[in-house]
Write a structure and sequence with these properties.
alpha/beta, Rossmann fold, 2 domains, 4-stranded parallel beta sheet, 14 helices
């Protein structure tokens, strides 16, 4: 089956990102290895520009625009990390950015978007409001929509994180990637499916936003409805024609965890690794420490992706 991106697309994205994105480090922690019962390798995307992996996809997609189209600007809708990524990538290309943000988006992320010079448009906190507001902006400005995950160039850009992990640590028995819209999960899965086909791919998802788990169990796309989780970056729905087919065909299992486990994992990273990550980034570790994942056999080495480090320090959950 043809998916939204392939390894050639991902390698081309890596070339475009060279010199613009940060090649983020891979960290380890013996304490967390002992707790998980496996050797864990953490790809630290909180050190990426804008503090999240989202810069990879946004920059790649904007770089692909023809000059006469790009000068009209770009439009997106996002709760924060993709919003920051599009705002910064647009600034680096010298074009305007129009960003739709839900009213419950973290203040720290809204402030960052404004700091990159983007024009912010607030909307109610639901997917329909985000999409309709963004569509109206595209109509008014002539800008190009750069969606958070539902776009081949965005997926290819996110896949460069998986490419880098493979280049640094080689084949792993498994990887765990958090899933919201599925851009990072799809990109990493497509990269590793080509580079290390024996690596088992697991998706990590909050119990309160479990559309990917329900879709996987049912064998059909089920959209997200009324997500309730501390992991604000994972409240979105899978892309029906772009990211869902990858989850359906190439991801072994979607494992869900409760918010309490996410908070505990986040605190462990802060205390033991001395790294600041946001709740969404802690979901893969919560899965790695879960009874379900620990019960799986023939897995000794695991790659996990810390997706970002943007959170309101005045509202810590511990």
């Amino acid at each position: 089956m043809k998916y939204a991106a392939n390894i050639d697309d991902i390698r081309a994205a890596a070339h475009r990102l060279s010199g613009h994105a940060i090649r983020t480090p891979v960290h380890t922690c013996s304490t967390l290895d002992a707790l998980a019962g496996r050797r864990l390798y953490f790809k630290c995307e909180q050190f990426q520009k804008v503090g999240a992996f989202k810069f990879r996809g946004a920059y790649n997609a904007i770089s692909r625009l023809e000059a006469d189209i790009a000068r009209r600007g770009v439009v997106t809708h996002s709760s924060g990390n993709h919003a920051q990524a599009v705002a910064l990538a647009a600034k680096m290309h010298g074009i305007p950015a129009y960003i739709v943000m839900p009213e419950d988006a973290p203040a720290v992320k809204r402030t960052a978007v404004a700091g990159y010079g983007a024009e912010i448009h607030q909307c109610p906190a639901n997917l329909m409001a985000r999409e309709t507001t963004a569509a109206a902006l595209v109509e008014r400005t002539g800008g190009t929509l750069i969606p958070p995950y539902d776009h081949p160039d965005v997926i290819a850009g996110q896949g460069t994180a998986g490419l880098e992990l493979f280049e640094e640590v080689g084949p792993l028995d498994a990887v765990i990637v958090a899933v919201g819209g599925g851009g990072l999960l799809s990109g990493v899965t497509l990269a590793l499916d080509a580079l290390s086909p024996n690596t088992r791919i697991f998706a990590a998802e909050p119990d309160g936003a479990d559309d990917a788990a329900r879709s996987k169990a049912a064998g059909r796309f089920i959209p997200q409805t009324n997500p309730q989780t501390i992991a604000d970056g994972l409240r979105t729905s899978l892309g029906e024609t772009t990211t869902w087919p990858v989850v359906r065909d190439l991801v072994e299992e979607v494992i869900t965890v409760e918010d309490d486990a996410i908070v505990s994992a986040m605190r462990l990273v802060w205390e033991r690794m001395k790294l600041v990550i946001e709740p969404s980034a802690a979901v893969p570790l919560a899965v790695a420490l879960s009874p379900r994942f620990r019960a799986l056999e023939d897995i000794d080495s695991v790659g996990l992706f810390f997706s970002g480090g943007n959170l309101d320090l005045a509202k810590l959950p511990f």
